Sequence to fold (515 residues):
Amino acid sequence: MSLILFILIIPALFTIPFAFCWKQFEAAGQKGYYSIIPYFNIFVMLKIIKKHKKFWWWFFIIFPYINIFMLFLMLIELGKCFGKFKVWEEFMAAVLPFIFFPLIVKDAPYQDPEKTKRPKKSTGREWFDAIVFAVVAALIIRTYVFEAFTIPTPSMEKSLCVGDYLIVSKIHYGPKRPNTPLSFPFVHNTLPFSSTKKSYLEWIKLPYHRYPGITSIKRYDPIVFNYPAGDTVCENFQSSYNYYDLIQENGREAVWNNGRLTYKGMPLPPGGKVIAHPIDKRENYVKRLIGMPGDSLKIVDGIVYINGEKAFMPENMQHHYTVVTKGDPINPRVLEKYDITEVYHPQGYPSNAYLLNISEKTAAELRELPFITSVTIDVSPAGQDTDSFLFPNNPELYPWNPDNFGPIYIPQKGATVQLNTRTLPLYERIIHAYELHDVKVNGDQILIDGQPADSYTFEMDYYWMMGDNRDNSADSRYWGYVPENHIVGKPVFIWLSLDKEKGGIRWSRMFRIPK
Fold:
């Protein structure tokens, strides 16, 4: 499908504007109708502007997204062949060729670009050209090579901290072709100075395609990905809540009222209109990849098991621990020494008991302190504290909690699973939201695209992501699998780290490689 679309888009992308250059083709000694012959018109255009012998022009013309800039550049170069060197003329040639080129037919003869003496650029013009080149180059790098991200939440604390600024490599796993190439540069899904206005147009929608990377996706890598449940959000909750959580918080009942999501006739304050984001415009999350396609995963008393074996436990992985002292409160200097930032005193706890979010290493060191009597990990027993917000959001069939979860199969491309009313909740979102099939249930019968189905074969690989800060992480335990087309890249470098609570720079975290 991607190849067919590519074959159709390339000739349309170039032929439509080239059709208005019919007279320019004739003035350059070519047949006018060459301008409307798909593919051949690209060769003729490059010949007219004397770029047909340069390999990099051909390479970037067939490279999606970059070829849009190459089209603009070719039109600008064609204008220069007819003596149009002013900034406004270059703008007209690139953006409004259907008006510009028909108007310059009579007053502008063709000039061989290799023989024409080009006018000397002013200082302002040189700066303008340099800025345009820098912007285009930065967009290409941001789209296909590296992109800067910041850590907004503590779900990976202390491996990746709030305020860490990351360089994320897109070439490790292979860059994705943008789904929405028509978007405002250097922003994500909303326009600058707005938290609600879309930054992109969906006039052109490209299917998923990933270019070759330098390495494969590896288990236990920290990975940046597009938030799967972020496909549908309310206008004013785009980065904090997804549509599904808002419905669930309000009793699983939602209706439309004048374009607003409402519950029992009242707007969800301040929800706003419901927005469906394309994949590349969903919020960016970073977690650790725990489960690979084809794995069986289970969590027992807070410990993750993959295919029956205990999973790797990152050095900085944190859990809630109940810490009981001999009576005195914990000295703030102790908290600072062990970098303990999350301290709770839940209702019902004795005055000398605290709930700390710490690593096993820190827990072991606290046990050695003379004023502490016990340090025990705080987990919910199996079958208790079941949570309807946990995937697959069906505690009657799956009475799981964050500490005792599964077993669950992580889908692999080409694998087939049996479908029935019990297993459907595990895979329904994959079938209808990620692989775009219609799913209906009629009694005990499951219909996929209108046909009875008792099994399903997956079309993509899926992954299971979890935060290292296990008891303070919204991860796959809550929204399920991460499709392969949501993988963005690998964090490779922390170039800055700001302590947003205390203020200042965390010098010890700068210029580090995330692990």
